[in-house]
């Protein structure tokens, strides 16, 4: 009969794996530490590295509509999102400064207050000349960010997206239409989950890679036809030629609704609300400053009416420029009053500097 023996060193090391064992010090020998890492954790880490959450509507960097304005267009978008019979794609176009980004983010905020509503978003942004802000005009982050948001909002969807990444580890280097299929469409189909989601993509015209956006739009008819209404898109952009050309293709045109925002958003009541609130806020901000008459303007509504009658406030962009100009005038006025009020001190300082 054979017998086996265990060396004292092996017995000591085995004690390390006994529950509640006392601390043991092992001197000498060569040891190899084998760490087991979950493949799903690895896939999730990789997915996170390819997302840009600051480009979503949850980010504080994305502008919103002024309170109590643009309510009609936001309500219209909400009705489209609720209606299961709506088109699969809604394209809102409009000139620069008309408020597309603010409308998109306000719509997403509004829909998050409703039950059983799934909204994911990505805002393709370029920084202003005077802002030290990161630009998200690279389309390589677009689909991974949307996939990550859907995975966090739709219970049970995450594991199917992560499984797809494990099966296609190079998916983030693939064309954008392939990413759409592997990271979003196929996981939705594999999950058999029932939900209704709306994806908001703003600033398509701001994307550095125009060809990528064209390929994405060209892929919509085929991929959206198989998800049974669980995935729809609201797209916002300027009416650029390449985007218009994609929507002129019959396959995309047949599943889309196009709206020109210039016919929807420049409501006189909204502009009046914005300017009235802006002037009142200026008064609150500067009422403590020397030399500023607290009674100005004596009739805010009359001032706004005069601006509108003179066509100074012909749209929201003009109203925003006017508000910025008034703020600059206020600031200059306060600075001049402060200098004059302290003229004697300034003279003394000038004399000291001259010496």
From TrEMBL:
InterPro entries named in the record: NPHP3-like_N, P-loop_NTPase
One Pfam family linked to the record: NPHP3_N
Residue runs in coiled coils: none
Keywords of this entry: Repeat
Domain Nephrocystin 3-like N-terminal stretches: 78-238
Name of the molecule in the record: Nephrocystin 3-like N-terminal domain-containing protein
Native species: Psilocybe cyanescens
